[in-house]
Amino acid sequence: MLADPQAFQIRAADATDLEQVIALDERVTGTAKEPYWNELYTRYQTRRPKERFFFVAEEEKDDNSESIVGFIIGEVRAWEFGSTPCGWVFAISVDPATRLTGIGTALFDVISESFKKVGVHTIRTMISHKNHELLSFFRSEGLTAGPYLQLEKELN
Fold first, then answer.
1. How far apart are CA 156 and CA 135, in angstroms?
2. Do 93 and 30 form a contact (C-beta atoms < 8 A)?
3. CB 3.0-4.6 Å disulfide test: which of 42, 94, 133, 135 passes with 70?
4. Mapping DSSP to helix (H, G, I), strand (E, B) and coil, where does residue 67 land?
5. Alpha-carbon separation of residue 134 from 59, 85, 113 (angstroms)
6. Per the domain annotation, does 131 fall within a domain?
7. How many domains are there within the chain?
8. Residue 151 domain flag
9. What does pTM read for this prediction?
10. 5-33, pLDDT tens digit by residue?
11. What is the largest CA-CA distance in the chain?
12. By residue range, what is the domain housing residue 71?
């Protein structure tokens, strides 16, 4: 079931959204990260605003108040590991009660357009291979394996 496009709007996040973003992230991940989100907001809404994006999906509730039901964050990055400029999506979340309604796709479309406007033609992200739900979402948006391989080493 797709969400009624009139039922939610997507806009740039502002400081008044942080409390709801933090609460949504905690509901989804099970971990409260208030200092992390405060720092991200400062970095992504006040520094390099033409290359960094933080959007929220806002839904009007029955009592005419508004509720954040999703968010997406990304930035233009370049030259690491020989990569030409590309858009990185490093956070996306949709309230579990509103998933499968088109909100995630709408958020992804908005950040994709933002990347295109600044001349980026490739989007990248990184997710755990165990996160099947998010992997399915990104695949449905057209993302496939890219030319880079992520490597890691545990530091004991």
1. 29
2. no
3. 94
4. strand
5. 22, 24, 21
6. yes
7. 1
8. no
9. 0.86
10. 557 899 999 889 999 999 999 999 899 89
11. 52
12. 8-140
